[in-house]
Amino acid sequence: MMAGERWGLDRRGLVLGSAGLGALSLGGCATLAEPARTRGGVYTPQIAPVRASMNRVFDITVCLRPFRAAGPRLEAETIGDTAVIHNYGHGGSGWSLSWGSGTLAVRMAMAQSPKTVAVIGCGAIGLTAALLAQEAGAKVTIYARDLLPDTRSARATGSWTPDSRIALTKAAGPAFAERWEEMARISHKRFRRYLGLPGTPVEWSDRYTLFDRPPGSEPEPEDPLGFASYGDRIRDLNGRSEALAPGATPFPTPYVRRNASMQFNVADYAHTLMADFLAAGGRFERREFHSPGEFSSLPEKVVINCPGYAARALCKDESITPVRGQITWLIPQPEVNYGVYYNGVGVLSRRDGIVVQAVWGGDMFGYANAQEVVDRAEAEKSVAIVAGLYRRMGV
Ligand SMILES: Cc1cc2nc3c(=O)[nH]c(=O)nc-3n(C[C@H](O)[C@H](O)[C@H](O)COP(=O)(O)OP(=O)(O)OC[C@H]3O[C@@H](n4cnc5c(N)ncnc54)[C@H](O)[C@@H]3O)c2cc1C
Hints:
Layout: E1 37-39, E2 42-44, E3 57-68, E4 73-79, E5 82-88, H1 94-110, E6 116-122, H2 124-135, E7 139-147, H3 169-191, E8 202-211, H4 235-238, E9 242-244, E10 255-264, H5 266-279, E11 283-286, E12 302-305, H6 311-314, E13 320-330, E14 338-342, E15 345-350, E16 353-358, H7 376-392
Parallel strand pairs: 5-12, 6-7, 6-12, 7-11, 8-14
Antiparallel strand pairs: 1-2, 3-13, 4-5, 8-10, 9-10, 13-16, 14-15, 15-16
Helix pairs in contact: 1-2, 1-3, 2-5
Bound molecules: flavin-adenine dinucleotide.
């Protein structure tokens, strides 16, 4: 998939299947924001337009994905009298894989039957591992320099993207592919608990991928490193994308594919997780560590280490490569309930803002770039592309 976070899209969906769209032009578009109805026998969804303008930008955030060629580090190490379980390096998939990764980490941690467990880090990975350790019967303290929403995790797109920049196929090998599938399945199941809750921390949404030329007819972005793609292993969870007939949506491109995917409304989801942790008797302690050796000074003798990208400095782990990603945030529009990918830009409407993200160049976009600073030109260009899309629709 060319889109960086893959936008919860169907990688294989880019290759036009038997839908036989052919070289069709767009005869009579469905009208924007009209109620859903059928048109010539085709279901026409309501598509409210995104008001894409720099005037509606309320924030631009930048974050570094903690990428490891071999996949996340999930292993135990003994430091002094302390068992340390490392759980970091989840690339562009940290939210998506968090529950599965945490389950494997907690399994290792609880092998020692500890009564108390320390978790280092309070991003997506630390917080979910902490909740799982509580469920396994431990009393848990999270030690972290910053708590959500002040960690990098809060700057994510918030989409179910379990194999986004998670590993390189060759470096990770088949054993990791198996482990990845286990993590993805555990996570996917766990997200169901958060569907339908007040605040809508997790929900399903439709995603549209728009093409001016037949899907698959344009060259894929270069991928010299060979990023792993494991989506086929969980096709039963992801569902399939479908090619929509011309005119079946108000979008102006001749080729439109649609699939459905989960999204995480991070503001509410993170808040829900923090509240759940406290309600289960969890404790936060703000603390900064300078080396893993300091973990053995903690009263807990089992530690789950989840520092994310910061493991590069904290654990001197140079196997972590930064992959920069920037999000331009548009003021939320509750009437927009879908995601769309067009011309190298992904848009996802969340309850807490509309995410606009450039993904030119596919998975290599931002690779080995540790510049965690705003690039306003990138923001302006991506918003202009989205604005151009809706202008083509007469908005
Ligand atoms: C632009 C962008 C979009 C993304 N979109 C998605 C998406 O749609 N779906 C998805 O699944 N993933 C996505 N990701 C990836 C996801 O955000 C990361 O994989 C995830 O945030 C990693 O979480 P973490 O808990 O490991 O790290 P962090 O959120 O960085 O948390 C690390 C924690 O460790 C603490 N810490 C670090 N060092 C120390 C220290 N020395 N002492 C004490 N505490 C310390 C920090 O304070 C923090 O609490 C995206 C990433 C980016 C950049």
